[in-house]
Specification:
Blueprint (H helix, E strand, L loop, with lengths): L4 H12 L6 H8 L13 H6 L10 H9 L2 E8 L2 E11 L2 E8 L8 H17 L5
Antiparallel strand pairs: 1-2, 2-3
Length: about 130
């Protein structure tokens, strides 16, 4: 019997919309949540979590980020290409970064190191951490 579009819809809804739970459990069950600072009509993470987390309020993910033990995986872009990846987490109130390179080394350009530090400072500010 072929799978219909209705079958697929039921499958997806049953596995992604679940009884509201804790923020940590919802993140674990979903596997990931796209964090997006654009607020039209609201930030992506707040739209995703408000129906899945009991008593969730906009901004709860950021307010509780450091206690949740979650990580950020980001592509590392420099000029016109992807040069690696960055894995960011908060441990003991400090931003931890682990960077990987597509090539054997990061760009040797001084501007790269400077801009990387600026971007990490932006992430610290976004998460309410001291730089």
């Amino acid at each position: 019997m072929p799978i219909t579009l209705d079958d697929l819809r039921c499958f997806v809804v049953a596995r992604s919309l679940f009884t509201p739970t804790t923020l940590k459990c919802a993140l674990h069950r979903l596997g990931f949540v796209q964090a997006d600072p654009i607020r039209a009509p609201a930030r992506a993470q707040d739209l995703t979590l408000r129906h899945r987390v009991k008593d969730y309020r906009a901004g709860d993910l950021e307010r509780r980020y450091s206690e949740l033990g979650v990580e950020e995986d980001l592509p590392l872009l420099w000029r016109d290409r992807v040069i690696g990846w960055g894995n960011l987490s908060v441990k003991n109130g400090e931003l931890q970064s682990e960077l990987g390179d597509v090539e054997s080394h990061p760009p040797r350009d001084r501007a790269f190191k400077r801009e990387l530090e600026v971007e990490l400072d932006r992430m610290r500010a976004f998460l309410g951490l001291e730089s």
